[in-house]
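#struct-queue
[09:14] JT: dropping the first one here, sequence first, then the structure tokens:
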Amino acid sequence: MKTNLEKLVFILLTFSILISCRSEVELKPVQMTSKPVFITGKVLNQTSEYNTVTVYVNELLSGEQLSYVSLVDSFGNFQIKFKLYYPQDILVRYGDNAFPIIIHPTDSIHIVFDANMISDKNELAKSIQFAGSRSDNESLIAFYALISEIFIPWEQYCQYEKEYNSDKFTALLDSLRSLKKEAANEFIRQGVSKELENWIKKEVDFDYYNWLALYPYDHAGFNKLDEYTIVPSSFYDFMNIELSLSDLSNSKSIIFIGRYQRRISSLMIDDGKLFKPDGRWTYKGNANDAIIKIILKYTSDSLLREMLIARQLYYTLDRREIKDFEKHYALFEKTVTQPFLREPLINKYIETKKHFENAQPRENTLLKLTKNTPANELITKILDDHKGKIIYLDIWATWCSPCRREMPFSKQLMQTLNNDKVAFVYLCIDSEEDKWKAIISELNISGSHYLATPDQSRFLYQLFEMNGVPQFVLLDTKGNVIEKGIHLRPSESLIKTKIDKLLME
């Protein structure tokens, strides 16, 4: 009966995809219902070397880790405020060490810890103090110290990933999981809250799921093989789990949502939606359509399915694929009901659409189309346009999140250098013109912007021996390539040093 019901749900949801062809969606901004959280504390025996405390919060929809920083005053005091939708663990960091705590919306928690104890998990568990809102965090810290002692040394673990086949490696993780479960059950028997009991069990389970899901990728990397040829799709069947809202208190569930993409990709190969015609894996047809159909077809748990659909729709908007989101709007309405998924998605759609409707680049931003330039002459054209200047070339794409994350750092670097002898050139590949213009407007970044055609994009991959984007190239005033690579990204201080050196020559 359950199987038939699941098939019916899949058919109905798939049908909603097919009939959802709205060309435009009218949505109004929504008020976020997340609640404030206050964390105050005192660092005992603080060192002059470290004067900040940072809280890291894993965000489910985007999969990103948000950070909130507080200065530590001369008395060791700090305070941090942020918002949460639901109870979850966060990471509190001071210096080179960190510890997890569980926090709830509207909580106000005060933490006192000794800087001299934080590097020793057992000593931290004995000395840390909590006050304020309801909390079982003393016990959580104690369990964290206990479970941290059950591990495989990293170098040995990597050796196992390299040498073991999937069955042998799974057996290894099964044995490690059994040891952790035994320790967890013994700890629970000593008496903990229901919330912490569930968190502890999920800590063991998600740790197992996440490392096992990574095996094909790591094994392929160590042995220079193709990740998708290492295991059959059935290898990932362990990921088709049941979830409850209370499970989300363990932030490793968010990592699990990200790792689930590996199961989706493997199933897409089985369904012929992901194939390798010319040495590179390629989607057959519309990638969003294919991924969503795979999620609906093979994910049986409703909450897991909802989170995966919401994550995919978020990525759709993150790539500025407005029309694709609108095409799946009926599915969004039917499937995505949790406020922590629904509200941010609605607001992201509205904000993203705004830049498409009113793309206004900065006054000193130059947009250049290169349709009439032969592929092998594109770089020559860029050199001619910036003759006699040092060129910092940023090769990016509209669908590439890491590319866009570097842009604010590029703006800062441009302002820091403030030198007319340096040209910041942004070369966009594998992208559509409307998305290109919208993102440049959204980022509000100056410089010279070029949009490469498909032929030019393919040529650039070969010319600079690129495996992906972003890619950065530094050229001197004569047009010689001084250096290229991801290590030249603007978020690293290395690039400013290299440009300064060229300016002195």
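[09:21] JT: and here's the second one, same format:
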Amino acid sequence: MAMVFALILGLLFASCQSTAQTKSDDKTLVSTKLKWSERMAQTLMKKHPNAFEIDDKTAPKWDYVHGLVMTSFEELYKKTNNQMYYDYLKGYADATISPDGSIPSYSMEKYNIDMIVSGNIMFFLYDKTKEEKYLKAMQTMRDQLQNQPRTSEGGFWHKKIYPNQMWLDGLYMGSPFYARYTSKYENGKQLDDVAKQFELIQKNLLDSKTGLLYHGWDESKEMAWSNKETGTSPNFWSRSLGWYAMALVDALDYFPENHPKRGELILYLNSLSNTLLKYQHSSGLWYQVTDQGDREGNYLEASGSAMFAYAFAKGANKGYLPKEFKNHATKAFDGLTRDLMQITPEGYTILTQVCAVAGLGGKPFRDGSYDYYINERKKDNDPKATGPFILAALELNR
């Protein structure tokens, strides 16, 4: 009798344990056993069931942040062959592109180079599906570049509303797409023009003292933020440098080894990467204002750090950078996951300390000062950090 009673108690205890475990498992929507790339991707999918909802959008919008994150989903799908990642990125394309290939939320006449980057996933989608609307969307982006206003030397303006200006951001927005399109559909005939964009950045935005590049440059020198002698903005912003580093490693993919400009771009990447090591914090991260260290108000920022981790890792994997840059990328990635990552009870991965947005000029006016950069709002899991984080995790196999 005592044995039977003990058996019943044991079964009840096991049942209670099982029920408790089930309840606990119910809370975990994203498995912590997955690699960081999938943990972040599934966090975004759970929080934003439709890809166009990323960045708190309520209606489909053709936008650069979606282009960045969907690029990371493309790479994730290629790595895992998991259909849900493909469906998610295709869902974004289908929500923003009409059956006839037009893009309702896009206006070419604004000549905003940020818009080009969402065209990157169209190469993959068109190759996979042969749906003409994806090709037409690509052609629309190519048409914009064909007519994009330029500086006197041939550099793309950042936007029509920012005349005569080149920003580091714009190199990522336009150059990888431009290089890929001309390589695939134009026999590479415009690769020299792609390289010219980088050449003009190096000529006009590089600071010889630090080796860093300023966020922006105004050829007219009329903007209140521009130096009246050089035309450059006053400070170095890590995310803008991150955009530029990613632009180099991604555009290089489409320069054949025998192309005369390829070595030049690799030199730019190595120069920037070696310079960035001088400003890498002991944690592996970089400050919002790159060269100002622990000056009051400055902070270790996630998006720029993730972008550098990706550029370093891919650069090393591709042979554009020395192999030791894989270690520098690992150090940066460790800093992100150790110091700036929060894990919720549901298993969601939340990157903190992300600058939500920063620019130059506009209304209200942004002066590019130190105080401006450190006081822009922060936003957890901003897509300008989550996209590069996924890309870095894939390059590092983390």
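[09:30] RK: nice, looked through the second one.
[09:31] RK: Confidence is low (pLDDT under 50) at residues 1-25.
[09:31] JT: good to know. The longest helix spans residues 2-27.
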